[in-house]
Write a structure and sequence with these properties.
- The protein is mainly beta.
- The protein has a single domain, classed as Sandwich (Jelly Rolls), CATH 2.60.120.
- It is built from no helices and 9 strands.
- The strands form 2 sheets. Strands 1, 2, 4, 6, 7 and 9 form a 6-stranded antiparallel sheet that branches. A 3-stranded antiparallel sheet has the order 3-8-5, with no helix packed on it.
- It is globular.
- The N and C termini lie far apart (about 30 Å).
Amino acid sequence: MSCTITEENQAHVKKITFDWVSAADGTASGTTKGVYSGLVERLVTIPDATDAPDDNYNVVINDEDETDILMGAGAARDTASTEQVLASSLGCVANDKLSLAITGAGSGNAGRVIVYLK
């Protein structure tokens, strides 16, 4: 299992990219180094073209209170298609690091999760 996190925190809109590969049990995780505040404006999930995750894998991004800032909108993601969720279905974060939790992805599969905060 691995997770590389790219944090773009310099602009008005912040972009956090999680590039993940799942472990044998279908999970992947990682935590940001930076602390974030704001409304979640957009979620994008992109399955890897070669090693796509199993269909209906789940994405959760927890704040330090272990509350999903995606408000459940990361559930049942598609194995083959890039999917997006807009702000009206997402939550917020206040001065917390963010922790990605992938489940149900299958062994050794990969993808990318991008979160935009404003």
